Amino acid sequence: MPVVVVESPAKAKTIEKYLGGDYRVLASFGHVRDLPPKDGSVDPDADFAMKWEVAADSRKHIKAIKDALKDDQTLILATDPDREGEAISWHLLEALSPALKKGAAVNRVTFNAITKTAVTEAMARPRQIDQPLVDAYLARRALDYLVGFNLSPVLWRKLPGAKSAGRVQSVCLRLIVDREMEIEAFKAREYWSVHARLATPGGAEYDAQLVSLAGSKLDRFDLATAEKAAMAVSAVASRELRVTSVAAKPATRNPWPPFMTSTLQQEASRKMGMGAKACMSAAQRLYEAGLITYMRTDGIDMAPEAVHAARDAIKAKFGDKYVPSSPRMYKNKAKNAQEAHECIRPTDMMLSPDKLKVTADDQRRLYDLIWKRTIASQMEAARMERTTVEIASPDNQVGLRATGQVILFDGFLRVYDQGRDDDDGEDSARLPAIQQGEAAKLVGKAFEAEFAKAREKDDPVPAAPAGQRAAPGLLLNDTAAVAARQHFTQPPPRYTEATLVKRMEELGIGRPSTYASIVTTIQDRDYVRKDKNRLIPEDKGRLVTIFLTKYFPRYVSYDFTADLENELDEISAGDLLWREVLGRFWKDFSKALEGTSELRITEVLDAIDEALAPHLYPPRADGGDPRECPLCGKGRLNLKTARSGGAFIGCSNYPECRYTRPISTPDGEEAVGDRILGEDNGEPISLKTGRFGPYVQRGEASEDNPKPARASIPKGWNPATLDLDRAVQLLSLPRPVGNHPEDGELIEAGIGRFGPYVKHGSKYANLPEVDEVFTIGMNRAVEVLAAKQTRGRAAAAAPLRELGNHPDGGAIQVMNGRYGPYVKWEKVNATLPRDVTPEDLTVEQALELIAAKAGKSPAKKKAAPKAKAVAKKPAAKKAPARKATRKAAEG
Length: 891
Known about the structure:
With 891 residues, the chain is α+β, with helices and mostly antiparallel strands. It contains 24 helices and 35 strands.
């Protein structure tokens, strides 16, 4: 029977179900060949010849396919319908060619969805491998190899601690570093806004904001100080106000287009906190199960039959009024969009998320997102009414505005609304019925609750003139009817994975199949860390970016990288020759490499030190030299590299002065270096920074005392504010609490690798707060230790079912575990298959699961004792017979 090859066993299983017994479907388990990770795998001097090797794990899969081809020489390559899928098919054909006889039938089929209809239609329309798509893959793979294997060694030699560089990953890293430097260079500007709580003659209340003062329109920074804000508050509070106009305008909101790869990753990040890699992994499983269309695409159009199916689903679920008169058509606005495939959508529009039979939570949630976005994209627009109310004083010296909107028909919003990375300022407040010409009365005590909350803050309080009150960031008139709020302009936000992918897409960097791997790679290399879903560059990432920007500016240029991506797209369209593109790239890139051959590490550090100077040495409050060493006052600060990799700021007066500090510190903390905190019992107590962070030390290392007492600064303590008393307390740990009242054994309190604790003999119990180590008394210590002991004696979980005894003795039980129900017999634990429930499990099934887990069949296990007893003595006598047999075989 014909042999069909796909990438994954899950995909193979689904397709085999559709094709029936007339085909044999096997999995290649992804790529079967790759470039060996060593120099020379791509040879520019031999017209970019590429040496491929079959991966060790892939040999058995290739052999299985070759064995299947012995019975039928019809090979159908059904890998994914993109550039990467075409490359896998090409690799498979190259690896299988020795097993194919002359005249063997080899075809390529593609389908955008793994459904019976799509697969059947694809099998009826086979084609040959698309060579231009393969050429584009070869060009991309060669480019990435040439950059990685030639640029990374330069980094290792010239920048200690750097790991590697990549053609697209380094550009992505630059985006994050550039954004961080924007944030650090940002200078906040103060401004104030003035608000009033007003009421209609009928008593209905609403809020309005001051928009004009002294007859002139207010711009954002016109009220730049508390003094000006206070004057504006007085101006509003001292005047009668009247509604001058009420304008209600109808408005519509159209739905968002269906998902493509980048927008799916962005929404999964916003709505579910799901990273790009996790998102694509879940989408891959849904695709292989035949639930969604192909998930690597930059297309947003939908097949006509899918559009009609979506409209039918909307009509059935929500009614005729939610179906627009004509189908909605979408076109990608991105300049480099290929749109080779349609959008990411469900294969069955009637399969709503509540009917989905998927147990994995991430897949279920992602399907819910895809289904709602797809259905919403074909729904009627939302209709609303936006109202703007203008209020002014009779002398026109004060003007306020109130805005709001009312949704008249929810339309697509009934199903789905896209998340936002940042507030877009749209005012959705509801307004009461307001008539032109009516009085707008100030409402007293309107801002009292806000004022009380503001007073809890420790920030500076502005000066309040007579008739007003002040709290941090807030001014009120005495009746609390008018309020002025303080604001500061905000720096651009750090990238999330979602906004980074969006920015890469805007710049034309990367493609749908590469976004997830790019973002993952820079985190795996410790160039970037994720904190509260925001991407923050590590010191190592900064240094690599500055080095590449300084010495290889063209190759981390956004425009150059985007242009190269466009050339790869032209290769895939058959408009460019891939070796010509590589030749032009290598000619310039090799010259850039040669230009760094004579560079010394000190030159590189000096160049990076100069480039990062605004970040490393910010202006001092006293106006002094930012590079002057704060410890010795004589040396100058400069960038240094550590033996273990990475970099730090050190004093040029080393070794006389050992001042050091990290090149960056967590938000809100001051950079701290070595300093003397004072003396205790005649010994200096100093604060130092080591490879594991800041610590305090008693005395100095010497021949007599090579390892002076040290203590790490606990998490949550700010080294910049650490004083002598706290340091001495740390160095005195563990602290004796007293003798236990029951056995008289000493109880101690200390800080260990797992945090603060109390210790009684060999028993430990954690404390919730670090500061409690220094204050805990006997009663509290005994209570904590007793609670820990009680928790340790928690009763064992009861079994879900008792199945009886095993043939070899011992009870068989069904237990409920962290990862689901499992069968337990003695020390063997065997997880239940997903399609078997604890209630339906039989003893025979349990024995099979136990035997499989233990690595032997139930029958063998039962017979083992007898076989052992019989075979013990004759073993020696049978040895000669085995020897004779061996000789006969050799003869």
